[in-house]
Amino acid sequence: MLIKSIELIEINLPLVHFFETSFGRTYERRIILVRVEDADGAEGWGEITCGESPGYSDEWTDSAWVTAEKILAPMVVGQEVASAADVWNLMKWARGHRMAKSGIETACWDLEAKKHGVPLWRHLGGVNQVIECGVSIGIQDSIAQLLEKIRVEVEAGYKRIKIKISPSWDYDVIKAVRAEFGDILLMGDANSAYTLADIDKLKSLDEFDLMMLEQPLPHDDIIDHAKLQREIKTPICLDEPIKSPEDARKAIELKSGKIINLKNGRVGGHTQSKMIEQICREANMPVWCGGMLESGIGRAHNIAISTLAGFRLPGDVSASKRYWHEDIIEPAVEVSSDGTITAPESPGIGFEVKRDQINRVAVRNVLIN
């Protein structure tokens, strides 16, 4: 596979409803799409999933654009690789910048699957065509507003509800959710909002039988998480500190948590995700696919990777309509009444990219060849 060119396109998509975490509120997403083309004229699509500011990650839209355009894309364009799995190594010289790398790498996987005429999920080694879906609900203006949003998603059939929490939005909120909805599969995501000084508060959440508490402590920590896990019954799910297969191995050895949220962008793409999934599967540690408010292209890649055997828990792969008035793929991602998505059988990501719609919402683009 000879990569002839890489096109970067920034689009602006307003969210149907604001999304709030401990980092703040997001009303509109600035998303970088990646289109790769080979010498035969075939194309593949990926997405750089970083946020608009360096809150969740040290990568952000403008830094990722420069890095992809000036450094990473020139490393790949004009190179011939035996398979998409080799694209990661072309960019290995550049330290970090995994989300920018992932956008390019996943686009090459889509391209390769299309050239083979197979769906991406099968090409990646997926075994579960039907995946279970959960939803992530941000911090709301009131508990009543949160309960109403949860009611909508439960009635829609979603298998698991994740709510964002913070030190000012935790115990009473979770208590109200349990009182209203009983024993639904419920988890809390702290996005690094706590420290070990909050251990008594975090212990108090044990009474609610949460399926997991995601990333309660600092984003780069696996030591204090191990201390915390020894003190609380609720399983800790690691997110931000797991950026590589080595990170996963070390966290497992340290017993820093019992579950890993695996995000393509955070770890650098499908090749790295597959390696982490294998490490976790062999250690009997469940993984699930987290979301970054992706457009349909990033969402399609999330569906594909979620079909691997190690993805044993419902992920944040939900319907397009929860986020976008109009998605950039056809058909839009839909979730069945029983809370599942069936990975498509069409080649590549399995969805048609709506280039006309992309052009309407694009604010800049550049072609590297």
Short description:
The protein has 369 residues and is an alpha/beta fold. It has 13 helices and 15 strands. Helix 1 (61-76) packs across helix 3 (98-116), helix 5 (143-155) crosses helix 6 (171-181) and helix 9 (245-254) packs parallel to helix 11.
Layout of helices and strands:
Elements: E1 3-21, E2 24-38, E3 43-48, H1 61-76, H2 87-90, H3 98-116, H4 120-123, E4 130-132, E5 134-137, H5 143-155, E6 160-164, H6 171-181, E7 186-189, H7 199-204, E8 212-214, H8 223-231, E9 236-238, H9 245-254, E10 259-262, H10 264-267, H11 270-282, E11 287-289, H12 296-305, E12 329-330, E13 340-342, E14 352-353, H13 355-361, E15 362-368
Parallel strand pairs: 5-6, 6-7, 7-8, 8-9, 9-10, 10-11
Antiparallel strand pairs: 1-2, 1-15, 2-3, 4-13, 12-14
Description:
By secondary structure, this protein is α/β, with parallel strands linked by helices. It folds into two domains: 3-117 and 355-368, Enolase-like, N-terminal domain (Enolase-like, domain 1, 2-Layer Sandwich), CATH 3.30.390.10; 122-342, TIM Barrel (Alpha-Beta Barrel), CATH 3.20.20. It has 13 helices and 15 strands. Strands 5-6-7-8-9-10-11 form a seven-stranded parallel beta sheet. A hairpin with a 2-residue loop joins strand 1 and strand 2. Helix 5 (143-155) packs across helix 6 (171-181).
